[in-house]
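Hello,

I think I submitted the MRU job twice by accident. Can you confirm which output corresponds to this input? Input:
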Amino acid sequence: MSRTLWIDTEGTLRTIDQTLLPFERREVALRTPGECELAIREMLVRGAPLIGAVGAYGLALALREDASDAALWRAFERLAAARPTAVNLRWALERVRDRVAGAAPAQRAALAWDEAGRICDDDVACNAVIGEHGARLLRALPRPGADVLNLLTHCNAGRLATIDHGTALAPIYRLHADGVRVHVWVDETRPRNQGAAITAWELAERGVPHTVIADNAGGLLMMQGRVDAVIVGCDRVAANGDVANKVGTYLKALAARDNGVPFYVACPVSTIDPLTPDGAAIPIEERAAREVTHLAGALDDGSRACVRVVPEGSPVANPAFDVTPARLVTALLTEHGACDASAAGVRAVLEARPS
Ligand code: MRU
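Support: Only one job matched these inputs. Its output is below.
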């Protein structure tokens, strides 16, 4: 089973609790809209496309309980608010809402469930194509004298952030499967360590050579010529090409620009939000201080522990995302190919969408 979200033989929606990775792979059932909302909010599921898909199923489950217009709107707003930055969540909820609008209440839950399944299938297909486009682009990068392609990624935009394949990791998996020698520098990605915990786990699972680095090591590696390209995922692309991704992405983009390293942002077109004019208008999720003050991990005997790393009483801020200005992005990499991170590039890729 490589999909991160699936329906079991009893018809129950199931996923993996990502808060337990890399120490335990535990499957969980999502049986109610409340369980879907909590899984998104508490990050049992995470990554823009995956939370969109779970939100879509959450709306379908809400319609099983009450298929009225009022209940549809209530569930829509609750699920949409669970994580505000990734536009894929609202996009997927709108897709389900539009599918059931106009249908008789008795048919709504089944239609919504079906649409959520299509969202998942489309995500897998999109990401496979992103992998093809991205692999072609990365393969063509100049690598004077080196036979290994060294890529750096931040956070987790792999299969665990999507239904399958990932976005930023899709080209890496493609290259690896094609026999290209690739090596990934994996930013640990404080505060929740999605790089160290999740990206490293899934790269290891697929046998892709990688090295985990502290978040602040990337600049030096780029300066030393040890990074051929940076490739990251994204939670929202604004109409002018600015991109929001996990906090710390912007600093990698600055270092990449200063060192002449290409900086690619991989995302499906559903991550582009033409209604958000620029990065300043993207809502940035502020998460709990505890994510910064405490670190979760395993002790040497294998038991799990959560330890405080900040003095009691020190004030803490925890913005979960940052904005990378379009001018620092070499290209956006979508299922329709690479395009400029600019108003014109974004418009062109949106127009390439089948209607
Ligand atoms: O807070 P998270 O773990 O949901 O953040 C995930 C990211 O920032 C990913 O890079 C992004 O969602 C792209 S997922 C393909």
